[in-house]
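Page 47, continued from p. 46.
Same chain as before, 276 aa.
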Amino acid sequence: MSPLPASPADRLGLAFRLCLTGLSLCTALAAEAAPIAPANPPRPAPALGIAPRGALFTPASAPEASPAAAAEDDSDEDFRARAEAEVLRRVGVGVRREAQRLWLPIAKGRPVVLDSRRADPSDPASPEVDFRLDGLSPDREFYVVRATLAAGSELLWISRTDGTRYAMHGNVHPSPDGRHLVVTHASPGAEFNGVVIWRREDGRLVERYRFQPTPEQTAISFRFLRWRDADTIELAQFAEVDPSICALGTLSSTALLARKGERWILRSASAQRCEP
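Result:
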């Protein structure tokens, strides 16, 4: 039997698996670790905006071209290059760019090297990807790098200690005590759709909770609202329904994700209502 053709989700997943080596995700809940005292680091450089999706490289550009040589048509590539140049100027931690190569120095070992590249028609396993530094994490212990592909994007946190890479999927929201990080991302297509909670442990990130809708639940999504306290997250929950139920086809409600001992429990916290 011949193999089935790869879906956009499969291609995106394969691309990120090629980019993210050494990443180990723990989907089971683990025992509670000793509290980590929140640090008071210097204020980090703010993350800048990300260009809208489109062609990753301008027709006249080549992978070896200098980022300073911006094209005249103000392409997505040029926007990302200008945004990153401002981040590099502000961060000042030894990060540098050489053409399409991004160098990230770390405390232990050789620098992390990320190479942006064009798609190779002869090699479907080598997709087009553009790596850009977005800034530093709030505690300045991780580089924040955005990987933009033709079919979507991924947000990477890379340890400044040992270079370990973590796929964060979306914007990160630290808890008030700094011990936990929550990420929500809604995507009807190939990108990640769900909620993930990480815990900071001795300079590492350990996954403590993950919710992804089943194939029968693909119309469910979440958006971060706020941390009510260090152990409770308030989320907006959305569900796509038939227009005969809601005119706009979307039901919304509030959900709470709360830590109880060693577990995180997701539950509804309000009645569903039609989106106005």
